[in-house]
Amino acid sequence: MYKELRSNFLENGKSNQQRVDKALDIYSDIEFEIYKYLNDKSDLFIVAEKISKASSLLPYDLLKLFIKFKETTEESLKRELLLKFHNDIEKEIYSLKLKQFDTVTFKSDKNIAASIEYYIKTKIEPFGIPLIYTYFNLVFLLLLILFTALIVSASTVREQIFLFSLIFAALSYLMFLYYIISEGFLKRRFKHSYINWILLLMFALGAPSLVIFTGAWFRGILVFVMIFIYGYYAGRKCMRERAV
Q1: DSSP assignment of 6-44, as one string?
Q2: Could you tell me which residues come within 8 angstroms of residue 101 by beta carbon, excluding any fewer than 6 positions away?
Q3: Transmembrane segments in this chain: where (predicted)?
Q4: Can you tell me the distance from the alpha carbon of 127 to that of 6, in angstroms, rounded to the nearest whole number?
Q5: d(Cα 225, Cα 26) in Å, to the nearest integer?
Q6: Would you state the pLDDT for residue 64?
Q7: Hey, which of 57, 69, 195, 237 would disulfide with 81, CB 3.0 to 4.6 Å?
Q8: Which of 137, 169, 136, 167 is nearest to 152 (CA)?
């Protein structure tokens, strides 16, 4: 299992890096074409064509801005939207540049934090992350076997409901933590703010505490409701849009 997960992780990492490289080239081409237009060295139609051809790689917000730009007929507003698009795509270029982790293109400010980040990203993650995934998969499997056996041996309907809801809540909780780790932290989509960190810690510690310290037979259902509420909040407020 570990070998297959590591192989998939490395392949996905390679694919993501190729997509980042491609997006950087296209975004830089668009940025320079807009720069030329703003200095009267290019045509507006050429700019719009370049952006349109890159639609599949544009983040949602930039694509939405481009569509608004195309639908605008007022020249002054059109130029204002194009200036905003130019500023936003520059930010995307900087953001994507930070996602390159090869020895040639990686940021070379030579500080300790950058060196540690590079070492973790290139040396530890290829072994550590598949190991974490393997651990989660084994935990899922063991929990499923254990709780299935408990449900079959339960003597009352209430006990069966309690065990079934607890299984569902436990698996949902682990799957959601898995999502937060992979999307939020490994892919750097988590928005770092005091409220987001406080709510994440409350969720991560609160759900297990509810199961351990609450004696209600429906506590598995309560945990699932907590997961649903926090999941809705996290999806809307805690995660950035994918860059590419």
Answers
A1: HHHHHHHHHHHHHHHHHHHHHHHHHHHHHHHHHTTSS-H
A2: 17, 118, 121, 122
A3: 131-155, 161-181, 193-211, 217-235
A4: 7
A5: 43
A6: 93
A7: 69
A8: 167
Cα end-to-end span (Å), the chain: 29
Confidence of residue 127 (pLDDT cuts 50, 70, 90): confident
Residue 141 C-beta-side C-alpha neighbours within 13 Å: 7
Cβ(123)–Cβ(6) below 8 Å = no
Helix%, strand%, coil% for the chain, nearest 5 = 80, 0, 20
Name the token pair of 82: 């194009």
Q: Which two tokens stand for residue 202?
A: 């409350």
pTM of the model: 0.57
Q: For residue 111, how many other CB atoms are within 10 A of its CB?
A: 10
pLDDT of residue 69: 92
Tokens of 124: 């530890």
Taking Cα atoms as reference points, which of 80, 79, 85, 53 lies closest to residue 66? Answer: 85
pLDDT > 70? residue 107? no
Find out whether 175 and 187 touch, Cβ atoms under 8 Å.
no
Residue 113 — pLDDT band, cuts 50, 70, 90? low
